[in-house]
Amino acid sequence: NDRQAVVQTVDFFPPIVDDPYAFGQIAAANALSDIYAMGGTPLTALNIVGFPAQMKPQVLTDILRGGSDKVHEAGAVVVGGHSIKDKELKYGVAVTGIIDTDKIISNDGARPGDRLFLTKPLGTGIITTAIKQKRASDEDTRNVTGRMAQLNKAAAELMVRHHAHAATDITGFGILGHAYEMADASGISIELEFNRLPILPNAIEFARAGALTGGANANRDYLADKVRIDNRLKKEETDILFDAQTSGGLLIAIDNNIVEKFTADAEKSGIELNMIGRVFEKTNRSINVI
Q1: Sign of the dihedral through C-alpha 245, 250, 253, 255
Q2: Of 1.10.645.10, 3.90.79.10, 3.30.1330.10, 3.80.30.20, which CATH number belongs to 4-103?
Q3: What architecture is the 115-289 domain classified under in CATH?
Q4: pTM over 0.70
């Protein structure tokens, strides 16, 4: 209608952690983020499952329970779904939400002078790869699992309250890939400060040891002529920039004139917020990392 619109998204993938319940939570949180990135409110979810016939049914029960609990935490409900037999386990959800048409936030509205904020630390792809390689500790596993299962709900409500100019969630294209999408869609350039980026503990060390995803290599190749990176950064530091994320935070562009109010509200609400860069007029490179 004239005041509200429906927003829909779908996402699913194979397990990235060993715990079935945690996998269900992460997959649901990841899908829900697309709704939050637009400033929407999720209403319903449909489960999507590919399940090997030889796998124990309890595994699926735990995955669905994790997903359902996370959807419930978001204030939405699981209304059904569909499953098929598959050689590889896969799970995700299709989410339907609602949004006020005068409050839609897309990735194409960033303006010169805006400040850029990120709401979750980077390095999930590197850490989960280290888990698979048996390099990560139990503490590393708990930390990255908790971060990936964390909803972007509060951060989305915060950016809507302060009329963010643009936003996107950080997932498979990494911080540089999604920042580039924002820059390209908005017709501007973005400067990111590496030392301001929030990074998961031990992510740089694991990157140095070679715990990198195929997605990171693809991101590096795709963005080669679109970004300029300070040559003083070490290889493992640049790996963070290209690392493919799962259920990452929101990248939010905020008018510089209301940054103090925005950050004060975040602190009062207990929302993690990191100012990582700013927006400039368009130059010959969409992204500059200093």
Answers
A1: negative
A2: 3.30.1330.10
A3: Alpha-Beta Complex (3.90)
A4: yes
Give CA separation, 192 vs 116, 207, 282, in Å.
8, 20, 15
Domain layout of the chain by residue ranges: 4-103, 115-289
> How confident is the prediction along the chain (290 residues), in pLDDT tens digits per residue?
889 999 999 999 999 999 999 999 999 999 999 999 999 999 999 999 999 999 999 999 999 999 999 999 999 999 999 999 999 999 999 999 999 999 999 999 999 999 999 999 999 999 999 999 999 999 999 999 999 999 999 999 999 999 999 999 999 999 999 999 999 999 999 999 999 999 999 999 999 999 999 899 999 999 999 999 999 999 999 999 999 999 999 999 999 999 999 999 999 999 999 999 999 999 999 999 99
Q: Contact at 8 Å (CB) between 155 and 252? A: yes
